[in-house]
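[09:14] KT: can someone run the structure on this one? pasting the chain below
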Amino acid sequence: MHSCNLNLASNPITKILLLFIILIQGSIAFAQPKPCTDPPTMTSFCKQACIICDIDGYTGRNGTGGQGEAPPGFCTTYLHNAKWIAFIAGSVDLKIRMSVSNCTQKRGLELGIYEGIDCKNYKLVSNCRGGANTAVAENTSAIFQNIVPLTIGQYYYIVMDGSNGSVCDWTFDVLEGSTQVAPLSTSGVIDGPSVTCFNELDHFTTSGDVGATIFDWTVNGVDIPNGGQDINITWPKEGMYEVCVTASNVCDKAPPSCKTVTVMGNVNTNIDATICEGGIYIVDENTQVDAPGEYDYKYTDQHGCDSLVHISLTQTNANIANIALNICDGDSIYIGTTPYFQTGDFTEMIQNDQGCDSIVNLSLNLVVCEMKGSSVPESAKCFGDNSGTLTFSIQQGTPPFDYNWRKVNSTINGQGMLVNINQDEIITGLGSGTYLITVTDGFGNDVIIIGTVNEPLALAATADVSDFSGYNVSCNGGQNGSINVNMTGGTQPYSYLWPDGSLTKNISGLAAGDYNVTLSDVNGCPLFYVININEPPSLSLQFTTVDPNCDGLNTGSIKVVNSAGGIIPYEFKLNNGTFEKELTFEGLQDGQYLISMKDGNGCIDTTQALLTGKIIPTLSINDDVTIKLSDEIQLASNSNIIIDDIKWNPPTGLSCNDCPNPVARPFLQTTYVASITSIDGCVTSDSLTIRVDESRRVFVPNVFSPNNDGINDIFSIVAGPEVTKILSFKVYNRWGAQVFEELQFAPENDKGWDGSFRGKEVEGGVFAWFAIVEFLDGKTKTFKGDVTVVR
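[09:31] RB: done, structure tokens below
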């Protein structure tokens, strides 16, 4: 009678690893705009837009580049050149001023602020200026405020379109609120269980930090996609786990916060047990069973985790075995540990492998028997074929004999009969291996003859192939590969046959591909061998272009940004230049260019690039000139473009400052600068200096004869055209008495002294005069002298 005991406290429970299943709840993370490079550039589409992490005070330009896209319902009547750029909200409410200037079409900008997570489900979060609401005109500004609360740390898009296609400068000034988020200092405290059970669904959340909008979770360093501020986790197996979260926004990232979670086992155990007839099985100190059957027991550990034990119990009944044997003289048979080697009947009590009692009744008969035999093998001709033979015979024994043969570690077998001693029996159609031939006489005696059939070594081939830096052909699509085949095994000499009929061991001038060769030895044993000739991947290059700008005709450039295929290192050239490792070609005019790429094997690939230059206007105006104070001069401008947009500065003294050919009449030396702008926005200037000869021409005669003969009857001032007014003209006699005065009169008016005083003619003699004269430039000058009256 035997019993078994199951101790759940001391027996290990098998641990079953399950797949790691993580269920995500909370917000969904989307693709975020990347911070702008310096200088930031607006883009035509939302998904290309970058973000300025503190846009307060930033000045940008919307630019050209096609119609672009705008959110549904954008405030415009027609979309011309939509542009996008993003900023981050540093406060729930925001009030800004957008100032617009320097517009190409003088019409201004239409704009609004939008929320557009992942560039979908756009939502207008501010007032929108454009269309029926009137664009922000050039040299004006407008106030924009949020109409819904903003999320601190979330990015928002400024969407603008040039009114009538205008390209303008714009400045973003924060009046209330902020567009800068304080640095993120923490990813928060993770709230969730520290100890849990296998297959349990647990909830974790983090407090985060103000301004954090992105939460990246990991478990044991493995990223959890689509994370939010909280997650649900189902644990796949027992063990120690580290749950971490990193809080961030598009402009900043906080250090991660982590929490260690211990997952306890929740393991099912299956036990197969056997009891002897009449025995019992002890499950634990409180439970035992004494009948075969299926039993389930459920246990809960100190952590509250369930474990299930299933017991399959069978019963072994008492066994009585009756055995009759013939053994050869000199042999023995053991029952348990007791040897038997004499003729007779015997009884032995033993225990089976389950520890249950069994009775063995033995009837033993001794037979004198010894058989001897031998074999001679013949090897197979080819490796792996069945052309070998095995010849055997019995030299000692009593015929007739039955025999069975089999190949070791195989199901190949056969049988037959021998009639006589020393009779050769041939087994044919054998492959390489060891064969056991069991020959039996009529008394049950047998002998095992062992024979081994050999075979030549397997035909094998290796190939020496051409090597061009790791590839068998130097260039993609080339035909300079070669193969040299080497054979081993079989029986020499060897033969070679290629698909094109060649019988040599080597071929050349090969393109990439598989090449089949039929190989054979002197016995005709074949080997079909395939050699692959590979080639490098085709050369490819990607480049970016910068079109010539307004700074000059030779300001374009081409830069190789990605090169692949072939063999490194790569070299590049432009048109008919020499190959070099330089990736950037600068100082280029507009036009078509050939970019060539050469790899380490000398393979060359060429592609085309087109540079489109801007129209840079030329401008020439008058040479420097000197004019009289009262003169004027016609200015002329010549250009290689139609002059539609010209400005003259300063406008002082010009008939117009926005026409090609104004009339200039400066009173002082003035340098005029003319500037014209092409349709591409390129500006060219030229200047001239007009020097003013400030000669002040005033003539007063020193004698006159007021005798009414119509000749020299009036004493007056003769003034040049630069004189605008005679402020005062006075005449005095020799005793200092004023005999004439005229005030505030034009020089062209023929006003002067007629040689009288108080209605009477004065006597001839010398008189003194004084005059104050005003000129075109606003200056005055006093003149004086004397005049002789002749009667």
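[09:33] KT: thanks! Residues 1-29 have pLDDT under 50 and may be disordered.
[09:34] RB: yep, looked fine to me
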